[in-house]
Amino acid sequence: MTELPPCPECASQYAYEMGALLVCPECAHEWSSDSTSGESTDATEQIIKDAVGNVLADGDTVTVVKDLKVKGSATALKVGTKVRNIRLVDGPGDHDIDAKVDGFGPMNLKSSIVKKA
Ligand SMILES: [Zn+2]
Q1: 3: CA distance to ligand 1 center in Å?
Q2: What is the model's pTM?
Q3: What DSSP assignment string belongs to 6-43?
């Protein structure tokens, strides 16, 4: 009786297992399920650390430690910018933080360029 998690890309409920991978039939995303059979914790346990090694959690406030070019924006995200209420995600590439940045709107950030505030 294992409930498969929804697709991290499109949240489709129809993901199915293929070997060690989970496959989404709707967006063709493939990812690995780390759940060891038997005892499964409710959430996927991904530990995401900031630039100095602090473990980040949903809802944390972080500051940006590196100037960042923002796609589609003339302004760069500056060092010291506060980002509130982050959400940890399994984003594209190293982008493992989903957050709304004042003046920029929702964007994906890399945990390696932020520091827990
Ligand atoms: Zn999908």
Answers
A1: 16
A2: 0.59
A3: PPTTT--S--EEETTEEE-TTT--EEE--PPSS---SS
